[in-house]
Amino acid sequence: MCGIVGYIGNQQACPILLDGMSKLEYRGYDSAGIAVYDGKRIDIEKCVGRLQALRIKIQGHEPQGTVGIGHTRWATHGRPSDRNAHPHCDESGRFVVVHNGIIENYLELKEYLLEKGHRFSSDTDTEVVAHLMADQYDGDFLSTVKKVIRRIDGSYSLVFLCADEPDKLITTKKDNPLVIGLGEGENFIASDIPAIIGHTRRTYIMSDGEIAIVTKDAVRVEDLNGNPINKKVYNVTWNAEAAEKGGFEHFMLKEIYEQPKAVRETMRGRLGKEEGTIDFPELNWTKADLRGIKKVFIVACGTAYHAGLVGKYYLEKFARIPVETDIASEFRYRDPLVDSSCLMIVISQSGETSDTLAALREAKRLGARTMAVTNVVGSSIAREADQVVYTYAGPEIAVASTKAYTTQLIVMLMLGIYVGRLRGELSDELARTLTRDLREIPEQIHAMLEDTEQIKIFAKRYGSSENAFFLGRSLDYFVALEGALKLKEISYIHAEAYAAGELKHGTLALVVEGLPVIVLATQADVYPKTISNLKEVKAREAEVIAIALQGDREIDKVADHVIYVPKTDKFLAPILAVLPLQLLAYYAALTRGCDVDKPRNLAKSVTVE
Ligand code: M6R
After folding, report:
1. How remote is the CA of residue 267 from the centroid of ligand 1, in Å?
2. Cβ neighbours of residue 505 closer than 8 Å, sequence gap 6 or more
3. Which residues, other chains included, contact 274 with Cβ-Cβ below 8 Å and sequence gap of 6+?
4. H or E element that contains 298
5. Alpha-carbon distance 449 to 261, whole Å?
6. How far apart are the first and last CA of the chain?
7. Cβ(178)–Cβ(141) under 8 Å?
8. Residue with the nearest Cα to atom 8 of ligand 1?
9. In the annotation, is 2 catalytic?
10. What pLDDT is attached to residue 361?
11. What separation in angstroms does the CA of 528 have from each of 263, 471, 477, 499, 567?
């Protein structure tokens, strides 16, 4: 997820690009760059760091010209650095491109281009596109763009600038947002409306496969075959601040709604073409490598730790490897029994959490092999681990982790399948069921997020409670932990999660009339036992909201309310069951007037012990 901006008109492009990019920093902020045609050539300025670093770098010698493109980066291929910052160009400097997304077949294309003598100056997938433009150039900018689009796979919004035809910008998209802002004698391109709302409210919202040829006086949209497309003008009615959050009231809600796309990105290129297969090209593990691993440690903090608990379950179940989970702040002080036969997996959205980093270093010191599951490319944890699997969730701004968690679950599930198959412990049949159900997940999440009325009602009804309990068994227990954390973190309601069977060992004493108890009941193998526990709290007159799979005909006879999640395999249920809990926490926090995105006493990245 990155921010892209384009301008063509009569004004100086540089300040307009920088202003637009400043509105898109929430989409990425590890490096920034601009390219402006100065009348003779395309001048590119870029550097690692926030936009402010670029402003300082170009102060006093800003590129001059009235057509240009800009980019704020959220690294996916190649760590944040000057050379990996966008825009990228071919060796002649004729073609310059900015890109948001992932070019899946970039390695194959890069090999082809290397063979033809191209020399690359970055580690990015995007640079391949610029070189491919040069390779395919037939003297016509538009026809070359079309040839290139036909050869690339993946997800993208792309804006191209060509020194031979500087009177136009060409842009296209697939699975990534792109808007055109329509001005008078000038036009704008952006990956999101906030970048252009200060200039115009008249926009074209681009669809996949559409190509826009943008000059200062006109915008022409056509498909790959040259058929014209008649776009409807969409008038933006929101204000700039709301636009930055994509029209959502808070980043947290926006990020909850980004989950279908986020999990799709996590699976992209990893779900094998053949059902039941998973590919982690970044791991390159052999059977022998895996045979050498006698034990796995999964270490993380907070929400990431909860994802780790689910991960332990998957690895033990599918790969039959013993797994220990640890809270990172505990791990290194307990003199853990770690050696070279162990694999240490650390999970961290930010990749900067100091306890998790310290645990990683401790495991390395003790000789373990290490692997990071993280969202932030080039983060400290990503750099220090032997191997990295990125979640590709895009920047998470709200303190409360939502899409990071679901994408971590997806990675851990895919990892379980991958290792399970390599070790020969997972049956083909179960592997096929799992990957088949995984493909359904984005659409199922989308459907769940379409209908949230019931959750809003519960949030209002129970928002004034001072306490809440979350119960579950097996995988449901781990989701209960995450649900309770979410609720306490942003609504300040005291919430506790318990393995449902633990209740009568003490906690049941706290269950009183009217206490909201959220019972997760998605796991068939422990279902009757969970229902017994549900009845125990009902007998103490608690109010039970159950989370169950669609098709469950029993649950509404015993619970006060039921939230149904789409039917899926029990192993995938946590990915769906957590959604109502995220929303419940969000709407409860709203009811209580809390600062949802910045809860008191907390920070997004915990870089102190
Ligand atoms: O960046 P990390 O994933 O390492 O962060 C770990 C925790 O601090 C984080 O998950 C925290 O618990 C969230 N704010 C919970 O929503």
Report:
1. 22
2. none
3. none
4. strand 295-300
5. 13
6. 29
7. no
8. 302
9. yes
10. 95
11. 31, 14, 15, 14, 18
pLDDT at site 131: 98
| Nearest CA owner, ligand 1 atom 7 | 302
Q: Which residues of 365-380 are buried (b: 16+ CB within 10 A; e: fewer)?
A: ebebbbbbbbbbbbbb
Euclidean distance between CA atoms 504 and 310, whole angstroms:
24
Determine the distance separating the centroid of ligand 1 and the alpha carbon of 465, expressed in angstroms.
Answer: 25
Which residue carries 């005909």 as its tokens?
Answer: 553
3-state secondary structure 8-29: ECCCCHHHHHHHHHHCCHHHCC
In this structure, are strands 3-8 and 67-73 parallel, antiparallel, or unpaired?
antiparallel
CB of 96 closer than 6 angstroms to any ligand 1 atom: no
**Torsions phi, psi for 567 (to 5 deg):** -65, 130
Q: pTM of the entire structure?
A: 0.78
Identify the active-site residue in 295, 567, 598, 604.
Answer: 604
Q: Give, for ligand 1, the residue of 303, 481, 600 to mutate: max count of ligand atoms closer than 8 Å to Cβ.
A: 303
What type of residue sits at position 251? F
Smallest CA separation from ligand 1 atom 4, residue: 348
Structure tokens at 19: 């202003």
Reduced to 3 states (helix: H, G, I; strand: E, B; else coil), residue 219 is strand
Q: Is 138 exposed, middle or buried (0-12, 13-18, 19+ CB in 10 A)?
A: exposed
Ordered strands of the 323-327 beta sheet: 323-327, 295-300, 342-348, 369-374, 387-390
Q: What is the mean pLDDT of each run of 10 residues along the chain (609 residues)?
A: 92 96 80 96 94 94 97 86 94 96 92 96 95 97 98 94 98 90 97 88 92 98 96 79 78 96 94 93 84 94 98 97 96 92 96 92 96 88 93 90 98 97 94 97 97 95 94 98 97 96 91 95 96 95 96 94 96 98 97 91 69
d(CA 88, CA 285): 32
Contact in structure between 603 and 397 (CB atoms under 8 Å)? no
**Cβ 307 under 6 angstroms from ligand 1:** no
C-alpha 71 – ligand 1 centre gap (Å): 28
CA of 376 to the centre of ligand 1 (A): 13
Instruction: Write the DSSP symbol of residue 535.
Output: H
Q: What are phi and psi of 316, to 5 degrees?
A: -70, -40
- Phi, psi angle pair for 21, to nearest 5°: -65, -35
Atom number in ligand 1 closest to CA 399: 14
The verdict on the CB of residue 348 being under 6 Å from ligand 1 is yes
CB contact at 8 A, 238 and 248:
no
Q: Residue 58 C-alpha to ligand 1 middle, in angstroms?
A: 36
Q: What residues contact 80, with CB distance under 8 A and at least 6 apart?
A: 30, 31, 48, 49, 73, 377, 378
Among candidates 406, 462, 470, 449, which has minimal Cα distance to 587?
Answer: 462
Let me know: does 102 contact 265? Beta carbons within 8 Å: yes
From the candidates 2, 14, 89, 162, which is the catalytic residue? 2
The identity of residue 161, as a single letter, is L
Residue with tokens 């449901």: 476
Active site residue 604: yes
Residue 599, token pair as written in the block: 């809860």
* 134's tokens: 């040069």
Per DSSP (E only), the strands in 555-603 are 561-565
Please report where in the chains the tokens 């497309």 appear, as a residue.
229
